[in-house]
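Hi V.,

You were right to ask for the full record rather than a summary. Here it is.
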Amino acid sequence: MNIIIVGNGKVGYTLAQYLSKDGHDIIILDRNQQALNRASETLDVMCVRGNGANVKTLIEAGVETADVIVAVTGNDELNMVCCLAAKQLGAKYSIANPERTTAQEISRLLRFPFAINIESFAHGRVEMVEFRTEDRDAILNTPLSRLHSRYPRIQFTAVQRSGDAFIPDGNSILLPGDRVYATGDRESVTQFFKHLGKDTQRLKSALLIGGGHISYYLAKIIAGMGVYLRLIEIDEKKCLRLADQLDGVMVINADGTDQEVLESENVGDCGALICLTNRDEENLITGMYGARHGVKKVIVKVNRLNAMDVMEDLGIDSAVSPKLTTANAILRSVRALNDSRNSVVEKVYGMLGGQVEAYEFTALEGAPYLNIPLNQLNIRKGILVSVLVRERKCIIPFGSDRIEAGDTVILTAKAGTVVNLEDAFDITEIRR
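Predicted structure:
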């Protein structure tokens, strides 16, 4: 596909990197010549200097023949204008910044206080939950092949140890401090963590700091879940508007980053503290304060991606970046538009700092990998068939299981190694 990316910051560069590897023709449009030089020197892309909202610049970039235009500048208004102009000039699809997606990501994190990340697949039937192993966990120092017999409804799909991520096999073992993804249907995942002694109690109260768009969408989602929710916003006009728009939410006009305010709201007693101001430093400091006062679940929003690298050192496990969320959402959208003869891409999810990806495919009739036992499919190294969903039933696959037409197939693999479902297998061996 012909794809124009407007904005060559970290999100734009990351998208160009992934999408060019997928075989798409990429044009990057940006006003910063230095950023364009970097992209031109390190990626297989074309670069155009100019304003993405300018009609002449869009035409120069070939917008009339573009399949997709993606606007990821730091200015939301510019992104929207760019997308509207591109559609009028002939671009087939346009994608801009989805703040609602970030709110949905946060709402999933509130399900388990111990979870670092949670992602759902197959219309919510499958969940991947990232957690950190502890010394007392009963799953340590045991080959995964033995753990599978103990937990047949759970698949351990990805592990990160000392900063390096890998796809485990039956001989792999888990060590204290590993970041691990456990995957299965919702009920089995809940039961697994109960067995480990992790806290699976439903969230009862939450405190939101900051009253922007993400806070609004998040409040709408979790207020309907029976959670006692307070939202602190320093701007009085915003408070009045939010109080009018949000039912069942206590809106407080105060500085939520002020420790005296947090003490007066008994921050240590709330189930979750979610810091969503527009300043990374304030979110980090407020999050650290909450963690030190015993809040079970602290989530902070960071705009600068390098800030996520210091989260662990500060005692904060869960951080969300609208930029990364945007990149993942756009990557999913573009890949879903890219037709495949033997499978349909439903979802792509970046994991463990982007080192690993999870993919959701629908297997189509006539594919060469259908109805063959998985242990005969020559699955490529570093790729795991994690879950099959057939007629709404989740199957943790073993060697004798087969992929059938119409199945939802969820893979995990090292980032950039899979575009189509066929990529998981050595098709030349199958066709012999």
